[in-house]
Amino acid sequence: MLVTLQKKRPDWLRTKFPGGPNYHELKVLKNRLRLHTVCESARCPNIGECWEQRTATFMILGDVCTRRCGFCAVPKGAPLPVDDQEPERVAQAVDHLGLQYAVVTSVNRDDRKDGGAEFFARTILAIRRIRPECKVEVLIPDFQGSRPALETVLAARPDVLSHNMETVPRLYRQVRPGARYEQSLNLLRSVGEIDPRIIAKSGMMLGLGEEPHEVLAAMRDLRDHDCRILTLGQYLRPTVNHLPIIRYYPPEEFAELKREGERMGFRHVEAGPLVRSSYHARNQLDAAGETLPA
Predict the structure, then answer these.
(1) Which CATH number do you get for residue 167?
(2) Of 40, 166, 239, 273, which residue is the least packed, with the fewest Cβ within 10 Å?
C-alpha cells in the first residue's frame, strides 16, 4: 500500500555535503569554461561523490528549459540564445578532466526546429576529436518525436543513447507535461532501428504515486522497445513547488526491481534510492557487457 506524502527522509537517502579538492577544481573549471551541469541545475544528491571523482554530466543548450515538468529543478522560461562554441568547450573540459567516459545532456529546446539535435552531434564529434578514446553517452530530450533529429544525433555515433521515461503512463500529464509515453518508447526503439550498434538506455523515478504493477508494466514496455540498460531511483522533491513525494522505496525493494528487470532481459539494471541516469554511467555500460564495434 502506498503511503501518502512521506516527509521525513530515511537514513538511506543521506548524502555527504559536497566538498573536497576535486569538487572545487571541477567547479572552477566549469565556471572558467562557462559550462552548465545537470548535477547543479537539477540538484542531484550525488554531486559531491561524482565531482570528487572528477565526473560530471554536462548540460548543453543553456540552462533554461522550455518545458515545465513537475519533478525537475532546472529553471524554466524563455530559452536563451545558443552558444556556437559550447560543444568545443565541453570537449575541452572532458580533456582537462581526463575522462574515459563523458555524459552530455540538455534542457528541452522546443523553440528549435531540431530540438537541439545538431548541438548534441557537434558535442559528440568535438569530444571525439580532442579525446578519441573517450566513450560518450548522451541523455536526450524527446525532440517532439522527430526521427530526423534522432538520426542527426545517432550519426555522430555516441556509445549510449539515453532517454528517460521518468514515470508510468498514468502519471505523465502531471510529471511530464508536453511529453507522451508512446512517443518516448518509440524513440528508444528507433535507436536500434537506425543503428543497432548504439545502446539504448532509459530511467525512471519512483515515489510519485505509481503502483508496483505499473512500474513492472513500464519496465516490460521498455524492454519490448529494445531498451538494454535501465536505471531506477527514488524521486526527491527539489522544492515545495514541485510534485510531492508519495512514497520512499527502501533499498530492498530496489533490489527486487533489479532482479525483475534482469529476468525481463535487460543487460543491466542500476537500481537504488540515490541512483540517477548518469550515476556510475561507465560502470553501467561495463556491467551490461556492451561494447560499440569499431
Answers:
(1) 3.20.20.70
(2) 239
Q: Specify burial of residue 252 (Cβ count, 10 A radius: 0-12, 13-18, 19+).
A: exposed
Beta bridge partners of 58: 37, 104
In-domain check, residue 20: no
Return the exposure string of 229-251: e unless at least 16 CB atoms fall within 10 Å of the residue's CB, then b: bbbbbbbbbeeeeebebbbbbee
DSSP state of 34: T
pLDDT tens digits along 7-64: 577 877 766 656 677 677 777 877 888 888 766 756 766 566 666 666 778 889 988 8
Q: Which amino acid is at 274?
A: L
Domains held by the chain: number: 1
User: Is 251 part of any domain?
Assistant: yes
pTM of the model: 0.90
Q: Is there a contact between 63 and 96 (Cβ–Cβ < 8 Å)?
A: no
- How far apart, in whole angstroms, are the C-alpha atoms of residue 293 and residue 236? 37
141, amino acid identity: P
How far, in Å, CA of 288 to CA of 199, rounded?
Answer: 10
- For cell 560543444, the residue is 87
Going across the sheet that includes 229-234, the strands are 36-37, 57-60, 101-106, 135-139, 160-162, 199-206, 229-234, 268-271
Is 2 inside a domain boundary?
Answer: no
- Asked if residue 63 lies in contact with residue 74, where contact means CB atoms within 8 angstroms, the answer is yes
Q: Give the Cα separation of 41 and 65 in Å (integer).
A: 11
- The whole domain housing 193 covers 36-288
41 near 74, Cβ under 8 Å? yes
* Closest by CA position to 167, among listed 270, 283, 69: 69
Q: Which three cell numbers stand for residue 119?
A: 548541438
Query: Is residue 220 in a domain?
Result: yes
Among 161, 141, 159, which Cα is nearest to 226's? 161
Element (H, E) at 21: helix 21-32
